[in-house]
Amino acid sequence: MPTTRSFYSFVGCMLIFFGLAGAEAWAQNRVIITLKDSQGAPLKDGVVMLQPGADITIASRVTKRDFAVQQIDREFVPRITVTGVGANVTFPNRDAVQHSVYSFSKAKAFEIPIYAGKSPQTITLDKAGLVTLGCNIHDWMVGYILIVDTPIAELSAADGRVVVSDLPLGKYTLRVWHPQLKSGEVSEPLIVSAGEQNVEVKVNLNPPRVRKKPALDSEGY
User: Fold this and answer.
1) Pairwise CA distance, residues 94 & 18, whole Å
2) What integer pLDDT is reported at residue 28 of this predicted model?
3) CA distances from 137 to 58, 122, 196, 215, 216 (A)
4) Same structural domain for residues 84 and 161?
5) Looking at the domain assignment, is residue 74 inside a domain?
6) Residues 79 and 129 placed together within one structural domain of the fold
7) pLDDT of residue 29
8) Over 60: is that where the pLDDT of 14 sits?
9) pLDDT computed for residue 22 by the predictor
10) pLDDT(117) > 80
11) How far apart are CA 104 and CA 63, in angstroms?
């Protein structure tokens, strides 16, 4: 007949076993979301956001650290940035020619007059939404900062994919944003279940309306 000590040791081992098994099952949950355009081609640089249902608690995985959008070769680099509410952004000018930076967006409106070198201002992004960047001198320059309040938000890779692992099971809302989306943003329900899931989202895009960058002239324009 087992002793009291051996009984509790057995129970403890079983709890550890089932705890590890549960943790392993959770870790194996993986959702592969693939964005495609209306022609079926992979869509790069779409932002995939996951909003959990009311009964799911998940810590935010969105980076909220301070960052920079640089001006390199008369373009905003990176062209698209995803961040959380409360981040600070600067706009260092790496070109020999001067730039300005402005936004008329509801999420954050500001204007930095023409300058070279170090960013003369730091902008705090204190509200969720889209910030569209422009330059008064070079009108083809367009950049985007998407400030999100969802715990999951990632840019799709060249193959159109976003891979999200270790999600609690349950109901989510899957949202997709892209600068060429006809509707601005699309959303659909998503139920995360155990194992690996493949989800394909097709979106209708407007043609790009970006003015082609001209060659450098004698004044560096």
Assistant:
1) 55
2) 62
3) 43, 20, 48, 15, 13
4) no
5) yes
6) yes
7) 87
8) no
9) 40
10) yes
11) 24
